[in-house]
């Protein structure tokens, strides 16, 4: 399975697809697309690109080597989310939940669902609920629909999008809200829970009044403006979590199943996911590494394979490394453009970068991290999701607060927590969870919070990723060396670039343009000629 988002190639975050992308961007980056194609599946949401559906089909026929009679199929947005979650999950049967800001129009659904009599075909899906079985297929149990009028918002995704927009207008950064929420008082504004009626979520008048107050809650870094923003984030996050919990209760009652798969942009809310894992009636919860719109390409492919071609897919989400196969010649070319083997402390060298090939790369990285430096790691196929899992990562020592990493490397606000990597076999010892996790915020056990301030948020939580030897052998070896040297089986994990770097050139540009100290691209280590004053 391969997946590549446009933003990784264009270097523009949230860069939506447009006509011309297939021949100009994806075909050069994904050589497999030049092979004969049996079927094309296209997914559309409610944006204006649906008006160009015929043109997209014509572009696909002109660009791809379609076999004779190869069809082009359209699939609803929420169904593409579901197929990105259930077929690649570890479950034989599961309840399915898709929560998004808005999806396809009712008139465009490709799934069978009984809509209320007289339903307007222009209504948008904002919540979808399923019963899923590998043997019996997918059954849509219910949908919440919305007319798209932002003066009358409906659905959990639209609600949180409005909270985000009140704090950071016109920016799709819900991670900022979840990071800010623990600094606020959820009761300070007197705002109620959302109105949950069965499978539908409606926004009470008190919240509508807040959403009509213009820039009254726009985030500012200090003073009363900060407190107002933090209080709104706290109230919004609590309302979101409580409403999601009630939807999970409703779906569990309808299905009676023990397992849940959950997708849609709202499934990126890690604290809420943690609550589902910890307190929902479902005994097992699976959120794919790419639950957002970037993962719908995977869902479209699996829908075509399973529902259209009748093939039993064996793809499972064991990791998120779905980018193009690494091009070793591209790494060699990028390294050849740099001086090789120069010593960092030679005063006669011009400021810049130099590359070396250490005999013990993992040991060299461990030493750099132990001296307080921040190291990037670029290896293998890139992650398809928005959060890096070790192939496009920035690594640092979790035993110290990492202001340099937050401000000079990532360019983030001070309140945003940093992710973490934990060596397999140590997850349950350090975090209050009974299984490996990838998309959930969980509590750091109290005895480790002072030891790991770099990854422990103000509310005592963290967002860990368990590192297994099969999926990421070099990273596992590096964490093992780090554990042996420091006694700590955890490293800080952040994204190498925003959006994460795709190519070696992208990764080197992150090193060159930020406060990153070094970059590992196995078997090479690239460093800056200027000695970092934070090193030992």
Describe the structure.
The protein has about 525 residues and is α/β, with parallel strands linked by helices. It has 17 helices and 19 strands. The strands form 5 sheets. It has an 8-stranded mixed sheet, sandwiched between helices. A 5-stranded mixed sheet has the order 5-4-3-8-9. A two-stranded parallel ribbon has the order 1-2. It is globular.
What brief labels describe this structure?
about 525 residues; alpha/beta; 8-stranded mixed β-sheet; 5-stranded mixed β-sheet; 17 helices; 19 strands; about 30% helix
Uncertain segments: none
- Net shape: globular
The biggest beta sheet, please?
A: 8 strands, mixed
What structural category do the secondary elements indicate? alpha/beta
Strand content: 15-25%
Number of strands: 19
Distance between the termini: 44 Å
User: What is the C-alpha radius of gyration, as a whole number of Å?
Assistant: 24 Å
């Amino acid at each position: 399975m391969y997946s590549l988002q446009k933003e990784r190639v264009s270097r523009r975050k949230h860069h939506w697809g447009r006509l011309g992308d297939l021949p100009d961007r994806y075909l050069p980056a994904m050589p497999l697309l030049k092979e004969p194609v049996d079927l094309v599946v296209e997914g559309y949401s409610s944006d204006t690109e649906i008006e160009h559906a015929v043109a997209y089909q014509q572009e696909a026929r002109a660009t791809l080597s379609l076999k004779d009679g190869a069809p082009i199929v359209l699939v609803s947005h929420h169904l593409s989310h579901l197929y990105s979650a259930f077929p690649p999950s570890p479950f034989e049967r599961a309840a399915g939940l898709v929560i998004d800001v808005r999806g396809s129009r009712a008139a465009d659904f490709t799934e069978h669902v009984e809509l209320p009599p007289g339903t307007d075909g222009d209504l948008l899906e904002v919540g979808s609920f399923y019963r899923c079985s590998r043997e019996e297929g997918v059954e849509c149990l219910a949908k919440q629909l919305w007319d798209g009028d932002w003066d009358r918002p409906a659905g959990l995704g639209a609600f949180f999008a409005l909270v985000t927009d009140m704090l950071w207008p016109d920016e799709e950064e819900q991670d900022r809200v979840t990071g800010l929420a623990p600094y606020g008082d959820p009761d300070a504004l007197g705002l109620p829970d959302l109105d949950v009626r069965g499978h539908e979520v409606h926004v009470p008048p008190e919240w509508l009044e807040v959403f009509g107050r213009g820039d009254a809650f726009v985030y500012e870094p200090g003073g009363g403006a900060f407190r107002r923003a933090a209080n709104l984030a706290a109230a919004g996050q609590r309302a979101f979590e409580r409403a999601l919990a009630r939807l999970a209760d409703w779906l569990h009652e309808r299905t009676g199943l023990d397992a849940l798969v959950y997708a849609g942009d709202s499934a990126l809310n890690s604290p809420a996911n943690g609550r589902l894992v910890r307190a929902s009636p479902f005994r097992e919860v699976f959120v794919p590494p790419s639950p957002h719109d970037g993962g719908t390409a995977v869902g479209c492919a699996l829908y075509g394979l399973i529902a259209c071609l009748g093939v039993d897919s064996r793809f499972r989400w064991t990791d998120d490394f779905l980018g193009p196969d690494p091009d070793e010649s591209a790494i060699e070319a990028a390294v050849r453009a740099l001086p090789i083997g120069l010593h960092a402390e030679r005063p006669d060298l011009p400021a810049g970068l130099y590359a070396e090939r250490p005999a013990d790369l993992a040991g060299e990285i461990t030493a750099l991290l132990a001296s307080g430096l921040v190291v990037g790691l670029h290896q293998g196929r890139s992650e398809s999701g928005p959060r890096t899992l070790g192939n496009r990562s920035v690594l640092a020592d979790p035993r110290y607060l990492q202001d340099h990493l937050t401000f000079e490397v990532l360019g983030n606000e001070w309140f945003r927590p940093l992710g973490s990597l934990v060596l397999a076999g140590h997850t349950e010892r350090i975090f209050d969870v009974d299984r490996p996790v990838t998309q959930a915020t969980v509590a750091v056990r109290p005895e480790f919070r002072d030891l790991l301030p770099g990854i422990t948020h103000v509310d005592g939580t963290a967002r860990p990723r368990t590192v297994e030897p099969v999926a990421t052998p070099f990273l596992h070896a590096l964490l093992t060396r780090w554990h042996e040297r420091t006694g700590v089986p955890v490293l800080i994990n952040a994204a190498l670039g925003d959006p994460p770097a795709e190519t070696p050139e992208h990764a080197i540009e992150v090193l060159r343009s930020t406060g990153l100290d070094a970059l590992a691209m196995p078997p090479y280590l690239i460093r800056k000629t200027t000695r970092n004053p934070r090193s030992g």
